Structure to design on (111 residues):
């Protein structure tokens, strides 16, 4: 089963991880990649560089960033392959223990 894990950090948007945070995260990424669990992962740049495209009643609007609702800002994502939602939750707990305060939404991906 594949799951998309969408990380929303509690840190101020655009705050890069420290070297102390990167080292254990790098080890986790390497371990999960080698085991076949981690299929893809990336951090996101600040919303000031992005846009939101919306369609409503057939009309498309584009809103350039930055976006103000910081609790809704996606800081990074990971695409993982695991055996169950429960395993995805456990792996997300491990990730958050390294990433720090924030929230990760876990969504199963159609296969």
């Amino acid at each position: 089963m594949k799951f998309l894990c969408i990380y929303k950090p509690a840190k101020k948007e655009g705050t890069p991880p420290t070297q102390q945070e990167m080292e254990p995260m790098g080890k986790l990424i390497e371990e999960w990649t080698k085991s076949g669990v981690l299929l893809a992962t990336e951090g996101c740049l600040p919303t000031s560089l992005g846009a939101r495209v919306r369609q409503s009643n057939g009309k498309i609007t584009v809103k350039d960033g930055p976006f103000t609702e910081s609790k809704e800002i996606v800081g990074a994502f990971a695409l993982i392959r695991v055996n169950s939602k429960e395993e995805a939750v456990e792996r997300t707990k491990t990730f958050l223990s390294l990433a720090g305060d924030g929230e990760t939404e876990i969504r199963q991906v159609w296969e």
Observations:
- The helical segments are 19-35, 85-99.
- The first strand starts at residue 2 and ends at 9.
